[in-house]
Amino acid sequence: MPRRDILVSLLERVILLHTALVLASAPSWAQTIEQPKDVVGDKAVAESDTDLAKQLQNPVGDLVSFPIQYNTNFGYGPHRGTQYVVNLQPVIPFHVNDDWNIITRAILPVVWNPSLSPAPAVPVGIAPTSFTAFLSPRHDANGWLWGVGPVVQVPTISSKTLGSSVWGGGPSAVIVWSGGPWVAGALVNNIWSLSGTPSPAGNSFATFLANPFVAYNFDSGWYISSSPNITANWQYSGTKWTVPIGGGVGRVFQVGALPVDLSLSAYYNVIRPSVGGTWQLSTQLTLVF
Predict the structure, then answer these.
(1) Closest CA to 184 of 198, 174, 195
(2) Structural element, H or E, at residue 41
(3) CA–CA separation, 38 vs 32, rounded Å?
């Protein structure tokens, strides 16, 4: 199937899924007319959606969830094309004992690239997977939670043009504060390749990530947030940093018995490498189990 047809099919499925979820979450006129409104029940649901939103905004929250993030990077590559990245990001906590959790987070990127000529590129493929395991307290201290642990880069690439073919690893840490409607904090990590060749055409790497985040939660599961991924490629010969600014809006709601978080955000890269994207539009759908 041609690349354009694949992208159109993917976009259609995302739009249809999002539309179906919104329609399924909205009460019908018939139900509103035929059933008496349970004010206490509605308030409890609204409060639970807001509380759930705050837990999902916490990277070491004690929830099993499956975020699916769809990113569109505009102005990417030497010809300023559009790159599409779908991140599959399962989060699974493990209870060590009454005091400690291990929160595992994985990110598997599926990438659609524009032409990067004269550099080689494939139209679509899988990039390296990152896996993090945070050791974190099960209970906060005056609203504060933290987590530390290793981050591992797994060479799940389907083509050598989509990333390194060697394993990598390093430390990761996160700190979070929750109070009232606010959730704020930062996650950082640094990954070094465990082998490989350190040359422009080699497969060694050294990368840094800082993810500061802040969210303000309203009633009924609505929130506004900013969560830019500030990155650095230590081995890149030009501008090493990508620094985005921006934010977005989202809502947690119920689809039957399944909680869902849907958000939309946009970021502009004020600092970027010469072939880096200028700005990004991101849609995220999170299923909570």
Answers:
(1) 174
(2) helix 39-56
(3) 11
Q: What tokens does 9 get?
A: 């099919």
Report which of 273, 119, 284 is spatially closest to residue 215, judged by C-alpha positions. Answer: 284
**198 in Cβ contact with 214 (< 8 Å):** no
What tokens appear for 114 in the block?
């524009």
**Band of pLDDT at residue 164, cut at 50, 70 and 90:** very high
CB contact at 8 A, 51 and 57: no
The two tokens of residue 153 are: 């880069």
Which residues touch 64 (CB under 8 Å, ≥6 apart)? 91, 92, 93, 288, 289
Nearest to 9 by CA among 66, 264, 1: 1
Q: For the chain, how many structural domains are there in total?
A: 1
The token pair that represents 182 in the structure block: 């606010």
pTM of structure: 0.83
For residue 237, list its beta bridge partners. none
Q: Tokens 């700005």, residue?
A: 279
Single-letter code of the amino acid located at 29: W
Q: How far is CA 151 from CA 37, 61, 103, 127, 215, in A?
A: 48, 18, 12, 16, 25
- Rounded CA-CA distance 156/90 in Å is 16
Q: Where are the beta strands (DSSP E) in the chain?
A: 65-76, 81-88, 91-95, 100-112, 124-126, 129-137, 144-154, 168-179, 182-193, 206-217, 222-226, 230-233, 241-255, 258-271, 279-288
**Domain interval for residue 176:** 3-288
Residue 47 pLDDT: 59
Tokens representing 179 are 């109070």
Question: What is the pLDDT, as a whole number, of residue 107?
Answer: 98
- Tell me, what CATH number does 153's domain have? 2.40.160.40
